[in-house]
Design a protein that fits this description.
Strand 4 and strand 5 form a beta hairpin. This protein starts with a helix and ends with a helix. It has about 425 residues and is mainly alpha-helical. Helix content is about 70%, strand content about 5%. Strands 1-4-5-3-2 form a five-stranded mixed sheet. Bound molecules: zinc ion.
């Protein structure tokens, strides 16, 4: 999925810092065929001329710099909240207004979430709307964009506030083992959320319906049946509401398992190319990748929460008084949330190259292999990747560091080369 959708999903799943406090809970497994910020890459032949290629490169560089600026801005906002005493003041005010039985957590999380959303709004607007407009990728009016942000914020609060209340209840009750308890709760939580998201959350932003092209539907069913695979629903969504970019994904668990194709993709791709994209998604289903992702998410959460537990104690000891934390409460003082947020950002930055490498090499590459083996149509595979690259303005040659940090899929150039290798070996 593209970055807008991904960041929105993340918002939806958690209230700013609170979200991070659950790590992998924000991680509803969805796999896109390519095409997110991570989907870049692709040979020089992707673009007809040098100007088009330069345009794609400058688009990607801008987005990458905006990602870096966004991270730096998050650090600044959290540091300001801590060093100015804003965070401890907010906790005292929250204590004063909240019923004693409920405590300061929810009012604090509500206020800090709204404040941090406001603080990041200019940057979100610039990267989410202005840049997309400038490169002719957006199909959204300014008003529609703001409307979606607002909807995402509301949903994030509705889901995130009870969540953070629960997280702090566990931290208070089990000050030593909270990290293990929360990590193990992540698994059922993610399963439930993954099951419900396709029917309760995703339709709030886009319309999903069975694909209209019945001939294509039959083709897809035949493809799956030939493999003895029980195909889940194949739906189309009106992604053109937001963007000109194309995508496909598989999502959901159990009875909500489905493959989703964007209308933007259906409009541009030949039936053979759609088939190969679908075969890739089918590969994820056959390989049980949702469960691998849930496992990976649980591991990541456990590692993250454990690290926070280890690192937070000395930091609280050293800075707790200066930042106005309630020393007797330790980590359970919600005023320390910005500190937790800083720790979580640092840890997830360190873990992201590992997660991305696993995703590229053990999840996405095998799905491409499956798509090629199943369709035996490398030309359609290469054609689909090239189209995806052009539609999404993918970077022909992402710098290695960018690939490590941001690419959950192999760069398109590598995927195209993979398709060509397959053709030569076949
Ligand atoms: Zn995939």
């Amino acid at each position: 999925m593209n970055r807008n959708r991904r960041s929105r999903l993340r918002r939806v799943l958690a209230v700013t810092f609170a979200l991070h406090a659950l790590g992998a809970a924000s991680f509803v497994p969805r796999r896109a065929v390519a095409a997110d910020k991570a989907g870049g890459g692709g040979g020089d032949e992707l673009y007809a001329d040098d100007a088009a290629r330069q345009r794609a490169i400058s688009y990607n560089r801008q987005r990458e710099w905006l990602t870096v600026i966004g991270m730096a801005w998050g650090v600044v906002v959290n540091l300001v909240a801590l060093t100015t005493g804003l965070s401890s003041w907010l906790r005292r005010r929250s204590d004063a207004v909240a019923p004693a039985r409920l405590g300061a957590t929810i009012p604090y999380a509500l206020a800090s979430s709204l404040l941090s959303s406001l603080a990041s709004l200019p940057l979100a607007y610039y990267s989410g709307w202005t840049v997309e407009q400038r490169y002719g990728l957006s199909n959204q009016t300014r008003r529609a964009w703001f409307g979606e942000q607002l909807k995402g914020e509301g949903l994030g609060l509705a889901l995130g506030l009870p969540l953070i209340q629960g997280v702090y209840a566990v931290i208070r009750r089990y000050p030593r083992t909270w990290w293990a308890i929360l990590s193990s709760l992540t698994v059922p939580f993610t399963i439930i959320l993954s099951n419900l998201a396709p029917i309760l959350i995703m339709p709030l932003f886009n319309k999903y319906e069975p694909i209209r092209d019945r001939a294509l539907a039959e083709r897809i069913k035949a493809l799956a049946a030939a493999q003895g695979v029980t195909i889940s629903d194949v739906l189309q969504m009106d992604m053109s509401k937001q963007t000109k970019k194309a995508n496909a994904m598989f999502t959901g668990i159990g009875n909500t398992k489905r493959i989703v194709l964007a209308d933007t993709l259906l409009n541009e791709f030949t039936p053979e190319e759609v088939e190969v994209v679908l075969a890739h998604e089918l590969g994820h289903q056959v390989h049980h990748d949702i469960w691998k992702l849930i496992g990976l998410g649980a591991l990541t959460t456990a590692l993250t929460a454990w690290s926070v537990d280890r690192l937070a104690a000395p930091l609280l000891e050293r800075y707790g008084r200066r930042f106005g934390f309630d020393q007797s409460q330790g980590l359970a003082d919600v005023a320390a949330l910005p500190l937790l947020s800083l720790l979580l950002s640092a840890i997830s930055l360190l873990l992201s190259p590992v997660q991305n490498a696993i995703s590229r090499n053990l999840i996405e590459r095998p799905a491409d292999q499956y798509a090629l083996d199943l369709t035996r149509n490398p030309d359609a595979f290469v054609g689909a990747m090239e189209k995806l690259g052009r539609l999404n303005l993918a970077d022909p040659r992402p710098p290695r560091l960018v690939k490590w940090l941001l690419y959950s899929h192999p760069p398109l150039q590598e995927r195209i080369a993979f398709g060509r290798d397959w053709r030569e070996q076949a």
